[in-house]
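As a warm-up, study this chain.
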Amino acid sequence: MIIENKVCTLILAAGLGTRMKSSKAKVLHKVLFKPMILHVLDAVKTLNLDHTYVIVGHQKEKVAELVTGYRAACIVQEQQLGTGHAVLCAEKELSSEGGTVLILSGDVPLIRADSLRALLAAHAKRRPVLTLMTAILDDSANYGRIVRDKQEKLLGIVEEKDATDQQKKIMEINAGIYCAEIPFLFKALKKVGSDNKQGEIYLTDIVKIAIDEGHDVATFSGAGGEEVLGINSRDELAEANRYLQLQKNTQLMAEGVKLIDPSTIFVQREVVIGRDTSIHANVRISGNSIIGINCTIGSDVVLHDCQIGDNAVIEPFSDLTSCTIQSNETVKTHTTMTRA
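Now compare it with the structure written out below.
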C-alpha cells in the first residue's frame, strides 16, 4: 500500500477520567504548571504536520478554548463510547484529508517529539496499514497487553478489563499511539463491535481486524516507558510532575544553573535561566519568565511571567507576577508585586 505524504494528527481528549476523582476534565489537570494536553500539543507542534484535530467531549468548551493557540480544530464526541467511537467522530474530517493519521491521547504529557518523529519515519519506511507504539513496563496494570504467538508474531491487543490472568502477566503494553492509513482505519472501525465488558468500541480492535484480513501491521518500541505513561489517577499525575521536574532541573544544571535543592524547585519547561544563577529551595518559576546570568533567587520565591536582568537578587519569600527587574537590582524579602 502506497502511503501519501500528507499526515495529520488526531488527539483524543473527550474523557472525564473517573479515576482522577475530579469534576475537571482529565486533560485539563496540570503537569508542571501546564494542562497535560498542552504538553501533547507542544510535542505534536514541532512535527509540522498538515492538520491537528482534537476530539472533545467532557467540558468541551474549556478544552476547545485551551487549544485555540495551537491552530487545532475540535471535533465533538457527544457520548463517550470508547476510543474507536472517538475516532469515528472524525471520519468526515480525516477522510477528506487522506493519507496517514497519527493518533494519540491528550493524557500522555511525557511523550517526546523525537519519539513521535521516529514512529512516523518507521511507518513511512515500512508502509503498513497500521503501526502501533508499544513499550515494556515493569508494572503493566491498566494497560492493553500486546499479544504475540510463540514466534513473536503480533496477534492483537487485549484490554486490561478483558484480559485473562495469564495475559495480565504480559509486560509489553500498547502505548495508545498509532500511525494509521486513513482509508483502512475507517473501513476497519466500522467492523468493530462493542461486545466487551465495557460495552465500548475499542480502537485496539482494528489491530486484529487488520491481521485477520492479511494486512501488514507493525509495532514500534522506540519510546521509553516513562514517555507513554497515561495519566489516569492523582498518583500518576504526581509521578508525571516529578518526571518533568527532574528533566527540566537536569537540563538547567547542565547549562550552568546552580540549584541548591532540586527536589524542591519547580521550573516550567519554557522558562529560560542564565548560567551561574543560583536558585535556593522551595522556588516556583512559571510562565514565560526569563532570568539573566549570575542572579540569586532566594528560598520560597514565586515568579510568574517575569523578566529578571543579569546579576539581580530576589530575596526570600518574594512573590512577583509580570514584573521586570533590571540588571543589578535587588528585590527585598517578602516583596509581593504584580505589574501590568
